[in-house]
Amino acid sequence: MSVKTISTFFVAATALLLMASCSKKTNTQGRYVPANAAVVVHVNSEAITAKLPWEEVKQNELFKTMYADSSLSSLVKSALDNPENTGIDIKKDMIFFMMKDSTGGYVVFQGAIKDAAKFKTYNAAALKNAAASEKNGVQYLTDKRTTVSWDKDKFIVVADAPEMINAGNFDKVMNRDSIVPAPSPVIVVRDGISTAAALYTLAENKSMANDEKFSKLVNSKGDIHFWMNTEALYEGNAGMAAMSMVNLRKLYEGSFTAGTVNFDNGLVNVDLISYAGKEMSDLWKKYGGTKISSDLTKRYPAKNVAAFFAINFKPEGIKEFVKLLGVDGFINMGSSLLGFNLDDFVKANKGDVMLALSDITKDSAGKTSANFLFAATVNDKVSFDKLVAAGSKMGKDKLGSDASKLFYNRNDPYFAIGNNKTAIDDFVGKNGNSQFDFLNKISSSPIAGYANLQYILTSMKETAGKDSLGMLALDLSSKMWKDATLNGGEFKDGGVSQHIEINLQDKTTNSLKQLNTYFGRMSTILKEKNKETNINDLRLPGNFPAGPDSSALYE
User: Fold this and answer.
1) DSSP assignments along 303-325, one per residue
2) Are 324 and 247 in contact (CB under 8 A)?
3) For residue 395, which of 384, 381, 382, 406 has the smallest C-alpha distance?
4) Distance CA 275, CA 9 (A)
5) Strand 495-504 vs strand 481-492: parallel, antiparallel, or unpaired?
6) What pLDDT was estimated at residue 24?
7) Are the C-beta atoms of residues 207 and 161 closer than 8 Å to each other?
8) Closest CA to 47 of 266, 267, 262, 271
9) 177-215: per-residue pLDDT in tens?
10) Which stretches of 46-174 are assigned E, i.e. beta strand?
């Protein structure tokens, strides 16, 4: 081979490598999912079935109850015996997604075919009145709002969902129906075959397979991946027109959230990254915080923390945020009636805020109470005094005599308000030195949260009445849950990251197996609770025996 040939080959190979490295990352999971899908859930079936085999699902009390239902057909029972009796491959990835359009929307379930003959037989029996057809190598069964389709490799089930026309309607969320009634939707019967056929022939560059961020999501380690496109969910809603005086579009334009769930031994890990449009992203990059204030947290005089939340941010960002939404004029107009303006709010605080609940107790009369505290760091004393005066006025107007149950105190750097005067005074007046183990996990983030699930559930048991089934449920829950933490708020890789960790008591068993057992046992308790409620509804005073003994529901 000549030197010239070798050189030409080397240049060509290098160019190909560069093109490959610079090209967009793709994925196979989103190949038949439209790029503007509102919600996508990807199930890593191989990982899920490895962590929770179907034989263990069948031992779940809820499953056993359902299976014992005499009204179940033999067809359904065959699927419950083994999902692969339906012809699907339960160890291959499965995709659920929701699409929203002008007629409402539709929901899709996709997966791999293991046995096409079984799949056809099962679905033909399940959809007894379905019309069968075939087009371009794809078979269809259509019955009312559901269309089942498949080729030799995959299946796509389309379910019409006209109710999605109301998804994300802010006028309904904010109870504005009486002010700006939404027009009654025109019900259009969807052509399920055309909808499914369009998915089989979907161009790759118009699918989620071509989305780099979705590729990054589904190619990361995870048992379940989920994706929510906020813009697709809210865009085009009639309720948005009702809120036209507020530039809410800035909140959801270019906004979506990617999440991963992993079921590990003794814990559930959830990782989220939230993306936004350019203007919202620029605000977060410029005004996002660094880490929560250790000065605040160590001053918290609590013995047993039930729940905790703290945030660090740059106060100037609030002003820029409301200006972006176009509501700064309204806010200044309203706040001026209370004696302050937006600039006062920005100057008043340093951007450190903490909210906590602790020390749950039960008094001699049987009333349950807990200490709560809200604290912030003070920046400008004069501006902060205006906020305190406005808060006092609003408290008297809204709370009336209950306002006397709230206490607040402040010095130059700190302000605190809560329902326990001693705790408030101690927080402000003393140099705190409190140490909480949970802060080791979350204190380096600008957003941090903690819930002591074990303490809350134990406290509920101690303050509960004589409801045996209720106590049984609390006992089951306290043996299951330990605590949960939240940390994040950093802007990186184009979005805001968050991490949620839910810890279970048993650290030796994967959390998916534990959840399967827990919800099965809880369903049994709830079933007995419903029976007891129905009996009590019919019970005549003084002539009906006591409810059943529930102690043997589970070991």
Assistant:
1) SSEEEEEEEEB-THHHHHHHHHH
2) yes
3) 406
4) 42
5) antiparallel
6) 57
7) no
8) 262
9) 444 445 555 556 789 999 999 999 999 999 999 999 999
10) 94-101, 104-112, 131-135, 138-143, 146-150, 154-160
Among 50-54, 156-160, 363-367, name the one with the lowest average pLDDT. Answer: 363-367
* Higher local confidence (pLDDT), 553 or 266: 266
Per-residue 3-state assignment (H helix, E strand, C coil) for 458-492: HHHHHHCCCCHHHHHHHHHHHHHEEEEEEEEEEEE
Three-class SS of 114-130: CCHHHHHHHHHHHCCCC
Residue type, 434: S
* pLDDT tens-place string over residues 256-313: 999 999 999 999 999 999 999 898 899 889 999 999 999 888 888 888 999 999 999 9
Neighbouring CB atoms inside 10 A of 455's CB total 19
Residue 160 CA to residue 185 CA, distance in Å, equals 15
CA atoms within 13 A on the CB side of 402: 6
Which positions ≥6 away from 86 have C-beta within 8 Å? 79, 118, 119, 122, 123
Residue 419 DSSP SS3? coil
Residue 335 phi, psi dihedral angles, 5° rounding: -70, -25
Tokens of 518: 């827990």
Cα–Cα distance measured from residue 347 to residue 211, given in angstroms and rounded to the nearest whole number = 42
CB 218 within 8 A of CB 40: no
Over the Cα atoms of the chain, what is R_g? 29
Instruction: Compute CA 454 distance to the chain's CA centroid, rounded to the nearest angstrom.
Output: 22
Secondary structure E strands in 404-555: 407-410, 414-418, 447-451, 481-492, 495-504
Strand 146-150 and strand 154-160: the pairing is: antiparallel
For β-strands 407-410 and 267-275, DSSP reports them as unpaired
H or E segment to which residue 512 belongs: helix 511-538
Q: CB neighbours (10 Å) of residue 97? A: 22
The CA distances from residue 167 to 188, 277, 465, in Å, are: 17, 21, 40
Question: 233: burial class by Cβ within 10 Å (0-12, 13-18, 19+)?
Answer: buried
- Rounded CA-CA distance 468/535 in Å is 15
User: What is the model's pTM?
Assistant: 0.84
Length of the chain: 555
Tell me the H-state helices in 137-248: 170-173, 192-200, 212-218, 230-234, 238-242
Paired tokens of 261: 């769930």
Please report the DSSP string for 19-32 in residue order: HHHHSPP--STTTT
What pLDDT sits at residue 397?
58
